[in-house]
Design brief:
- The complex is a heterodimer of chains A (317) and B (531).
- Chain A is mainly α and 317 residues long.
- Chain A has a single domain, classed as MetI-like fold (Orthogonal Bundle).
- Helix content of chain A is 70%, strand content 0%.
- Chain B folds into two domains: 218 residues, Periplasmic binding protein-like II (D-Maltodextrin-Binding Protein, domain 2, 3-Layer(aba) Sandwich), CATH 3.40.190.10; 186 residues, Periplasmic binding protein-like II (D-Maltodextrin-Binding Protein, domain 2, 3-Layer(aba) Sandwich).
- Chain B is 44% helix and 13% strand.
- In chain B, a hairpin with a 2-residue loop joins strand 1 and strand 2.
- In chain B, helix 6 crosses helix 16 and helix 13 packs across helix 20.
- The chains are: A mainly alpha (317), B alpha/beta (531).
- Chains A and B meet through helix 14 of A and helix 3, helix 4, helix 20 and helix 21 of B.
Amino acid sequence: MKNTQAALRRPHKKLSWRNYMKRYGTLYLLLLLPIIFFIIFRYLPMAYITMAFKQNNIIKPLFEVPWAKKHGMEWFIKAFKNRDFLFAIKNTVTLNLLDLVIGFPAPIMLALLLNELNHRSFKRITQTVIYLPHFLSWIIISGLALRLLAPTDGLINILLGKVGIAPIPFLNKPNWWTGTYVALGIWKEAGWNTIIYLAAITGISPELYEAAAVDGANRLQRIWHVTLPGLRPTIITLLIMNLGRILGSEFDRPYALSNKLVTSASNVISIFVYQNGIKGSQFSLTTAVGLFQSVIGVFFLLSANSLAKKFGERGVW
Amino acid sequence: MKRILAILLAVAMLLSLSILSATAEELVDGKFAETRKITVEIFDRSNDGGTDPTNNKFTDFIKAGMLEKHNVEVEFVRVPRWTEVDDMNNLLAAGDAPDVCVTYSYPTIQTYANMGGVIDMNPYLTEYKDLLPNLYALLGDYNIFYNQDPETGTVWAIEALLAERARINTFVRKDWLEKLNMAAPTTIEEFEAMLVAFRDNAELLLGADAAKMIPYTTSYDIGWRNDHLLCSFVPDAATDEELYINGFDDRHLLFPGYKEGVRVLNKWYNMDLIWKDFALYGSGDTTEDNNLKAGFVGAFTHNWDYPFRNGEDSIHANLKRNAGEGAAFIAVECFKNDAGAYRKFLADSIDRKVFFPATNDEPLASMLYVDFISSPEVIKYLQIGDEGVNHDVMENGAIATKAAVAPDIQNSGMNIDYTITINGLELFDAELTNKSKALNYAGVESEYVEMALTASKNEGRTVAHFNVGAITAEEGMGTSLTEKRDTFLCQAVVAAEADFDAIYDAGMEDYLASGGQDIIDERAEKIAALK
């Protein structure tokens, strides 16, 4: 025990450049491919962020396109004067916050429950079943939702009608729709998201549980005082990542689930970008919107990270 | 300075002419010395039992014809029919658009033209007029130069000919009327009474399926799917100019009186006369068609020949199978305007727009393609196919369409997707065309088609076209305004009656504030300048 610890602490002997490359060269070679990927597909396209400050033209080569009016800020000004965009921000934040408040704790609870299951094969089967929805696309889920939840033809409302309950507007009243949106999100992803927590739980030393049991802690107390603290770094990390996405928005989920009656709740930024940019060919305007979205996202990410560090957690980096 | 500019312009003109003539010289008897290759857009309808729209007996016919006549190889590129505008946008943005493009959306073409993404067809149309006899004969200057800019002379797209001006119809279930001992409605009051009767007699009409009764069905596209009702509220005295100024929206949303039409729909919705779930389903969804085919629906408004389309899979054929031999939808006229006329707005004689993106390296070969596809023999063959397979010849010479299956099936009625310069039957013999029109729908009794054709055009009105050039305010607005229109119309229809005004007015205000008013103002300005 002592020996290995000493070995770990022993500082690396300085290798000469040649020896270093000889030893680790292949690793760097392996790294080359992903780096090239990131350069070509992630960094070079960033040049097109300048579209946000240029006139709307995607036919001419980028450097030939003149700058936009108002010192290049035309599209940002237009975006913030556009009420659809302001509504989209509101809806994006609302839906994401609801997802965070209701959707974020769901997999944690589910993971705790799964962890407490004693029957091995039952646990396995349950896990597999709750992972399944993750592999369905939102298009399929929206189809299912329509068949199940439509006011007159939906199975659930037909059944409710049979016992004398008036149809519930799951999909056609904005407030109900928001609930359906969040619930379906949990249904689809909660199971899958337990994986990371279950993995973290296995990392908790059994000795702690044994010690707690010796001290007379019951099940709930063990969860509260051992499992949850053990999960804390994972929870914080995921929370930070989620906060970074507070203004980001999925496209397929709100787009597939929405309809003309609930646009006041379902039109999020990504749908705004799709309607105006891809369908309406206003590429500069929507690039500006995308840039704004990213900047806010980065801001949230950084502040959440530093907050986490302030409270003594490790943060993401 | 002026002199330099003049010289520059002259040089530019010479250059462009020399580029043009360079391509022409390679033509011998309309044939290229060296084989050229072009790509052509084709709508994909993914119809049941259909063939690959890019490769079937009709594309083979076109390919062989183009190769023989002009030595041009043709390759077809599919674009899904119901999302064609979105897809066209993507293709143009990516620089992947086919050489010959077709779309229903002129604003899309205008937007890309402004970015330099579309070829000006004017020089080709004028320079090579002699090489394009079929195109000129079919479309005439009206359609070819319909979109010509009055100042610069540019032509970004030519307009296909709408040979059949009928647009839409209101259909009702003939067998239900008979069961209830009712005459076909001729006024809006009678129409409403009929819908009420359908609703109240669900047990009698549908038996065990009574709960599925839908007296009147519509879709999220309120404007199109109720146009005759909505436009019957437009005052007869509205002038062409007024209607042009308020004519940006192709569903006539901005026409005076429109709101009162929507109010009727709202009333009907609250009387449980309209399909409750209509707004939940998007474009291309088949739920509504299935309701129609199953026989649950009493009335609806749609394209003038909608129940008759698609041969064996038509609503008409399915209805007969599911609801009995006597079941059928007939076209009725019940919506009179303030002058007591069944006034409806007919389309101008324009249809799809054909254009060449800037990525087209073979504009001349593409132009020859447009000419080829406009020639009488080609149109005739594509529209009616082979005798005995796609059609029969009646005793009086009329052509009766037959339901064909793959590989002979026409993926679109009369192969409209291939005949990109014409929409509507044209056999180049007015009498024969008229005789054949009613026989154009396989398995549909001709009297139903005749009724529909008459009802759709009776007392119709076409708003005059004012060529004022591009309206800047319309640029890029088409899709977002269309979205707004559909959204607030749906919300207004399903609103409680007491909330109708508030919801409609808020929606309209938003529509106008988001660009609608600017368009109206610019149109008014440009029309004033014409005088």
